[in-house]
Design goal:
Structural class: mainly alpha
Strand content: under 5%
Number of strands: 0
Radius of gyration: 20 Å
Distance between the termini: 34 Å
Oligomer: single chain
Shape: elongated
Number of helices: 6
């Protein structure tokens, strides 16, 4: 027996001419990711390690990654140069790994609370 949500989804997909088969996890792992973007991120990180030293090298100064990300967002909005998106993603990853935010944590509730405010 299908849920109302499943019936609605199937109807909407069919009316748009899209396939109505159940979602396939393997296909989603491919369709919901951009391998080219990931490759460019990794190339930029390796190049940066040669220039500035590896991120996790002893004595490496931890930066405020989000400042760099915000600057790149402004530059991307001005220019449309997608190279800035690669930098933003890398800064966000570094913040996730080595960030210095005093209350850094992972919680889905933050997302839920923001949505409630809207």
């Amino acid at each position: 027996m299908h849920t109302i949500t499943e019936h609605l989804r199937a109807h909407l997909l069919k009316s748009c001419g899209m396939k109505t088969d159940p979602l396939n996890e393997k296909e989603l792992w491919e369709s919901e990711w951009c391998h080219e973007f990931e490759k460019l991120m990794r190339h930029r990180l390796v190049q940066g390690a040669f220039r500035y030293g590896a991120n996790k090298a002893p004595g490496k100064v931890i930066k405020q990654w989000m400042i760099g990300a915000k600057q790149r967002i402004e530059e991307y909005e001005k220019t449309g140069n997608t190279e800035f998106l690669i930098d933003i993603a890398n800064f966000c990853m570094k913040e996730y790994e080595m960030g210095i935010h005093p209350t850094k944590h992972f919680s889905n509730s933050a997302k839920v609370e923001k949505l409630k405010e809207k």
